[in-house]
User: Which sequence fits this backbone?
């Protein structure tokens, strides 16, 4: 918990938070040991906890990218339309 | 139940702006195998719907694909919330709050799109498979033929960049400005500012796992 105020410690805190986030995002659930480690990590300082919560929010917000499924699709369709364009019928 | 409008569907209207389309078009250059992904979504969805009422395959397929992706991602989001929150603070993003709906969604989507364009090709690919299509880490690894640990490294890198990007821009652009550039094509210009990436189109060259990641995260 020593010196989270220092720039170096700060970036390593952020890096650790990112690792935790992606670990939680993984296919396997956290083991009990990992949960314990996570709890310990978050309790090191308010900053630790805050950073992880913030990142988790970002991660949730990024799910808005599912909107792009449609964009892929429409792009491909344009492509197809260009290819066999005069076909006309449906 | 069949017409499930996910909260995000609200944001569909965003897509009408031609400028956004252009923008996304640039973003998608070099994204391979999209047909495979959609075929799979189709198969999974088709099993459920017996292929029956898919008269206009494309939109139906689209809905299925998006719904699939989103339900996977939301499940994970709830899980993460359980891990992280022990107080009242929720990490689940409330897309349905009136404020978000009004102006937030479009802006949010745009920011996230812009952020993605700066990622290196394979990193971007991994990130999009995860966040657009809801592929699990293992599915991504299998799909791209890379190690699961490499998938993680790319995701970590993507989070680092995109989080910073979105945070910085969101701070400097006030939330409730009317989205007036909706119609005039400002959008397509914006992501290009740090356009050092133009011309690096090598997305489908799969690098030897472990090679590309060297500078990620300063870990090695």
Assistant:
């Amino acid at each position: 918990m020593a010196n989270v105020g220092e720039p170096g410690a700060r970036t390593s805190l952020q890096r650790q938070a990112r690792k935790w986030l992606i670990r939680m995002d993984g296919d396997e659930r956290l083991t009990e040991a990992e949960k314990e480690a996570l709890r310990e990590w978050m309790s090191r300082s308010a900053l630790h906890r805050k950073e992880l919560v913030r990142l988790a929010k970002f991660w949730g917000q990024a799910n808005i990218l599912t909107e792009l499924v449609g964009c892929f699709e429409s792009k491909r369709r344009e492509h197809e339309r260009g290819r066999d364009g005069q076909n006309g019928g449906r | 139940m069949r017409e499930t409008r996910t909260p995000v569907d609200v944001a569909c209207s965003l897509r009408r702006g031609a400028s956004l389309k252009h923008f996304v078009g640039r973003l998608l250059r070099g994204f391979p195998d999209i047909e495979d992904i959609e075929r799979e979504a189709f198969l999974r969805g088709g099993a459920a719907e017996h292929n029956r009422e898919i008269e206009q395959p494309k939109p139906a397929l689209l809905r299925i694909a998006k719904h699939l992706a989103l339900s996977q991602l939301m499940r994970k989001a709830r899980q993460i919330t359980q891990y992280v929150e022990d107080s009242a603070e929720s990490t689940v993003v409330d897309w349905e709050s009136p404020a978000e709906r009004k102006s937030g969604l479009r802006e949010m989507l745009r920011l996230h799109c812009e952020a993605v364009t700066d990622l290196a090709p394979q990193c971007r690919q991994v990130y999009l498979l995860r966040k657009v299509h809801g592929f699990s880490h293992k599915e991504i690894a299998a799909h791209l033929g890379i190690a699961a640990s490499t998938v993680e490294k790319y995701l970590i890198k993507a989070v680092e960049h995109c989080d910073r990007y979105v945070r910085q821009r969101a701070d400097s652009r006030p939330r409730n400005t009317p989205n007036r550039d909706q119609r005039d094509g400002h959008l397509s210009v914006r992501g290009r500012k740090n356009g050092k990436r133009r011309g690096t189109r090598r997305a489908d060259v799969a690098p030897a796992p472990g090679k590309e990641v060297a500078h990620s995260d300063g870990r090695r």
Chain B touches chain A through 61 residues (CB under 8 Å). The two ends of chain B are 50 Å apart (CA to CA). Chain B has a mean pLDDT of 64. Chain B is about 55% helix and 0% strand.
